[in-house]
């Protein structure tokens, strides 16, 4: 079958049609992205200007829906790169009432967004609060770590924070449940020197609790580690019902990983290795496992030899 060929005039018509189609699409796209649309996003709440003498409990979720008027281009970017926003809520009016109306704070909230995004409303429009007795206490600061060390290096001492304690103020029932506060995690790779940094105190959504100060200076001592072999006498637990008990061998050899600067500090007196005769009395085992019940801080046990010992009992 003979294939029909497109002549020059037809090719020109097709070319014009395609150009018009592209121009129409571009024009439509420009109009679409320049028009204004209403877009709803989820936002977390951050309270500011909290009344000093009133402790409060929010009676609703700490997430609200924010209706924003923005261009089509911003809507497209928001869909391609969704992000949970945070809005600040002014609580200064709680000194005389127990609720906050968002419609009265639209201007304050709009100042927290770019000029090309206009907040129309927030849902729910009203936030209610329950007030209770306010109390204050001090809690210790802890530092979570995610650190990778250079070979033969590690933490060789206690992590220090300045301050060691922070003051928390808030409702009695909330403050009483807080035993400690953590800083933001400290990260590192191939670490071989001391870490000194400033880390913020992590609030963990405790929006109705005031923390002071809000950050701490963190020092983590890092040092070189080395192996140390120590012979430790075996202690027998629950031997009172027997005339004598003897283990073979009477000592265990423990291979440890210790700080190079503390190499001579640790001796057998700083460790305790036991066997428990109740294990034999109850389970009639033929050998007793070694249990390390005392190991100095920042000393790592690598190997215990032997891990089980034979024993003789005289009743």
Automatic annotation (TrEMBL):
InterPro entries: c-di-AMP_regulator
Entry-linked PANTHER family: CDAA REGULATORY PROTEIN CDAR (PTHR37804:SF1)
Protein name: YbbR domain-containing protein
Biological source species: Sphingobacterium yanglingense
């Amino acid at each position: 079958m003979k294939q029909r060929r497109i002549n020059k005039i037809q090719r020109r018509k097709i070319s014009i049609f395609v150009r018009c189609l592209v121009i129409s699409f571009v024009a439509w796209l420009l109009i679409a992205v320049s028009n204004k649309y209403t877009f709803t996003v989820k936002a977390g709440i951050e309270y500011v200007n909290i009344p000093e003498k009133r402790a409060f409990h929010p009676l609703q979720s700490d997430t609200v829906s924010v209706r924003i008027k923005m261009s089509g281009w911003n809507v497209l970017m928001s869909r391609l790169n969704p992000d949970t926003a945070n809005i600040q809520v002014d609580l200064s009016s709680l000194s005389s009432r127990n609720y906050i109306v968002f419609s009265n704070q639209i201007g304050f909230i709009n100042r927290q967004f770019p000029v090309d995004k206009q907040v129309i409303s927030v849902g729910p429009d009203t936030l209610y609060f329950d007030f209770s007795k306010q109390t204050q206490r001090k809690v210790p600061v802890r530092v979570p770590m995610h650190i990778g060390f250079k070979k033969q290096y590690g933490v060789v001492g206690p992590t220090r924070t300045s301050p060691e304690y922070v003051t928390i103020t808030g409702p009695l029932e909330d403050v009483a449940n807080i035993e400690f506060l953590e800083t933001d995690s400290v990260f590192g790779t191939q670490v071989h020197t001391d870490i000194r940094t400033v880390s913020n105190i992590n609030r963990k959504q405790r929006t109705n609790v005031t923390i002071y100060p809000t950050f701490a200076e963190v020092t983590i001592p890092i040092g070189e580690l080395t192996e140390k072999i120590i012979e430790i006498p075996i202690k027998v637990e629950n031997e009172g019902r027997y005339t004598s008990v003897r283990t073979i061998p009477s000592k265990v050899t423990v291979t440890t990983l210790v700080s190079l600067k503390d190499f001579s500090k640790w001796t057998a007196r700083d460790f305790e290795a036991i066997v428990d005769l109740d294990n034999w009395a109850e389970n009639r085992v033929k050998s007793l496992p070694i249990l390390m019940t005392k190991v100095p801080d920042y000393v790592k046990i690598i190997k215990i030899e032997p891990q089980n010992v034979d024993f003789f009992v005289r009743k």
